[in-house]
Design a protein that fits this description.
single chain; alpha+beta; four-stranded antiparallel sheet; two-stranded antiparallel ribbon
């Protein structure tokens, strides 16, 4: 038993409609993936911008600047200020090991390393001129531990170079 021309045409049209529907579904899925990709790209760009902004804010100017670093270190128990001429913010290490890491990053001009220390919460920043209480000095007197007395990090303690304490 053979198919009539009318049945063949009907089968052809049904098959054509099925293939067109499949193609349309594929195109819709591709558009959805494209939208998701654009959203991910936008989020990535935003995160990169924020990280670069943090890096810019937390790093001192390069070696060619005229910043003066000539503090006195203060005595234990004295109120002082953190100050480095030419900086907007100062980075403090949360412990002596982090201080050594932070110092090595500054020596190597490793901005990403410094940012990683901030992200890992091994260091934090305060505004230049922030009031502090000197709570300890290292044996070599090269670094001091201070307690922040004002600002968003009030109450936190960190290590800085004695030259930054006035």
């Amino acid at each position: 038993m053979g198919l009539t021309p009318e049945e063949r045409r009907k089968i052809y049209e049904e098959e054509k409609a099925r293939l067109e529907a499949q193609q349309q579904l594929k195109e819709e899925k591709a558009r959805e993936k494209s939208k998701i990709g654009l959203v991910c790209l936008g989020v990535g760009v935003f995160v990169a911008f924020i990280l670069l902004l943090i890096l810019y804010i937390t790093l001192p100017p390069n070696e060619t600047s005229n910043s003066k670093i000539t503090g006195t270190g203060g005595s234990v128990g004295s109120e002082s200020k953190l100050y480095v001429e030419g900086l907007e913010s100062i980075t403090l290490a949360v412990d002596k090991k982090a201080y050594d890491e932070l110092t090595n990053c500054y020596i190597a001009k490793d901005k990403i390393g410094i940012l990683n220390l901030v992200i890992a919460r091994k260091s934090f920043t305060v505004e230049n001129g922030t009031r502090v209480l000197v709570i300890a000095k290292s044996f070599t007197m090269s670094k001091v531990r201070v307690r922040i007395l004002e600002g968003k990090n009030m109450g936190k303690a960190g290590w800085v170079s004695y030259e930054w304490v006035w």
